Structure formats: structure tokens, C-alpha cells
């Protein structure tokens, strides 16, 4: 009751489908095994996995947007910095040759990002100090538009093995978000 496409023949291992039993030299009395599945069996195996993926997606959709979470609200509620770089919505640009400045970090202090491509480094500068990070040490970059100011993003650089190591930067102009991700995560842009 199984369609031929759902059957596999085994004789000293899985047989190539285009070969006949004669070509493989199956002799009288040799043991062969035929394995197969019905369409319903195959669908039953895939359904729990699909359902689990849908549950995960539903759970993610229920999550509160990052910009509404308390830890981020305290910085975002300060409002847009006066000296933030202008944003161009709906446009993707390469990284500028000057540092991206006028943004806030998670403590609400001013921060600037300098991309030293020739040294393969990202410099994160504050009033107190400049952290020089090899691009390869940054595990991930996440971003999300800021509600009510979709032309700016909040962005995190993962500096260690877990989300606890995220370095948050607020008010990143949207036109640079993809270029930052591509540059940091290794999809080089040649100028």
C-alpha cells in the first residue's frame, strides 16, 4: 500500500534508485529489506515540528517591543539627543567616513561609533574612554526601530557569549543600520 516513491530498498546498504536488483547482483536467497512510509506517516512526523515553530513565533510576537522595556525606557524617555546625526528614512547608506556620534549608551551617556576598517575594529567612544573592539569578537548585532521615531534604531553589540553582554546604543540613524550589521558581522562593503 505504499507508493514506489516512498519505498527504499536496502541490500548491503541503501541501493541507488536507478539500479535494478539484477545490476546489483542480488542472488536467489539473498536477504533484502524494503522500508517505506505512508504520506500520513511523513506528515505526522513534520507536524509537531511545525507546530513547535509556530508556538515559538507566537511567543516572540507576544514579547514586548524592546523600546517599551523598562531598561530601555529610561534612556529613550530622555528624548532624541540635540546633536544626533540626521536620519534618512527608507534609504540604506554605506558607513560614513566620520564617526557616528550624538547617540546614547544604556546609562544615557553620549557615545560615538568609529569603524576602523583597515584595523578590523569598532571603536566605541564615550567621554571617559574609547573601547577598541576587534570586529571578530562581536558575536551578534541586533536592532529595532524606536517607536514613534522609526527613522532611528536602538542597536546592541553582543560582546560576550550571552545577551547579558549586549552593549546598547540608542538613536542610530536608520540609513546606517544595515551597513553596521554587515560590516561588524563580516559582510564587507568595498568602498
Automatic annotation (TrEMBL):
It holds the Pfam family PH_UBFD1_C. InterPro entries: UBFD1, UBFD1_C, Ubiquitin-like_domsf. Residues 74-185 form the UBFD1 PH-like C-terminal domain. It comes from the Eukaryota. SUPFAM superfamilies: Ubiquitin-like. One of its GO terms (molecular function) is cadherin binding. This is UBFD1 protein. It comes from Quiscalus mexicanus (Great-tailed grackle).
Amino acid at each position: 500500500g505504499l507508493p514506489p516513491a516512498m519505498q527504499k530498498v536496502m541490500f548491503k546498504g541503501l541501493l541507488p534508485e536507478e539500479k535494478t536488483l539484477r545490476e546489483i547482483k542480488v542472488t536467489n536467497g539473498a536477504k533484502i529489506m524494503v522500508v517505506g512510509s505512508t504520506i500520513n506517516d511523513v506528515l505526522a512526523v513534520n507536524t509537531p515540528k511545525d507546530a513547535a515553530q509556530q508556538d515559538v513565533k507566537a511567543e516572540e510576537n507576544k514579547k514586548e517591543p524592546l523600546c517599551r522595556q523598562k531598561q530601555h525606557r529610561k534612556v529613550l524617555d530622555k528624548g532624541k539627543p540635540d546633536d544626533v546625526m540626521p536620519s534618512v528614512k527608507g534609504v540604506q547608506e554605506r558607513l560614513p567616513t566620520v564617526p557616528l556620534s550624538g547617540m546614547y549608551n544604556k546609562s544615557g551617556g553620549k557615545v560615538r561609533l568609529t569603524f576602523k576598517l583597515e584595523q578590523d575594529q569598532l571603536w566605541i567612544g564615550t567621554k571617559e574612554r574609547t573601547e577598541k573592539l576587534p570586529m571578530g569578537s562581536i558575536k551578534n548585532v541586533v536592532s529595532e526601530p524606536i517607536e514613534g521615531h522609526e527613522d532611528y534604531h536602538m542597536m546592541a553589540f553582543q560582546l560576550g557569549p550571552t545577551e547579558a553582554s549586549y552593549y546598547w546604543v540608542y538613536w542610530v540613524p536608520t540609513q546606517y543600520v544595515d551597513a553596521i550589521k554587515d560590516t561588524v558581522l563580516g559582510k564587507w562593503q568595498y568602498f
